[in-house]
Structure prediction request, 219 residues.
Amino acid sequence: MESGSLPLSPPGKVICCGLNYGDHIAETGRERPSHPTLFAKYADTLLADGADIVLPAGVEIDWEAELAVVVGAELRRADRAEAAQAIGGYTVANDVSVRDWQRRTLQWFQGKAWDATTPIGPVVVPPDAIDPVAGVDVMCRVNGEERQRGNTRTLVFDCATLLSYISTFTVLRPGDIVLTGTPGGVGMGMTPPTYLHDGDVVETEIPGIGTLTNTIRFA
Prediction:
């Protein structure tokens, strides 16, 4: 795939799960959720491998490496087994977040849905290429320094469970994307909190899928 193009057509729905790794829940000071903590993005938040993440100077930009699930078949009120069969593939995502905007209200949307800030790719692998239940590493590096390393076997709600739960209230169709959450190690959880700067290079990697490389640019 050439730099600058997404590995899939724009999805009808992009649904994200927050607070889905135990270590990330701990660093945010929250309790372990009894149900998935969900929010939505628009398709135009997505960005290709190699593209710059352009945001205004002065905002608090944070990284969030994630495994993303690509839906392969229509799901409506599916049970977990049906949802597992409907997984069309997996890819890498980074739910880049504008934390000061996210903190403005109890709703996260305005910190999560900035245009062209969620890199995804570099490819979509078939569902048998990796096994998130057995565990795959999810990593983020900033300027070559590792900031996050988690494993999907520690997800509170695994991929099939998320798809089944979401399909209860909104139909999922082929090409829709579900981001499964980020492990511990985000910038807002550091002491002191640490955010991204102009020129920082963010690498998001999941072995068996690939690595996204994107640069922060202030404009």
Observations:
- The chain has a mean pLDDT of 96.
- Residues 14-218 form a domain with the Fumarylacetoacetate hydrolase; domain 2 fold (CATH 3.90.850.10).
- The longest strand covers residues 210-218.
- The CA atoms of residues 103 and 111 lie 8 Å apart.
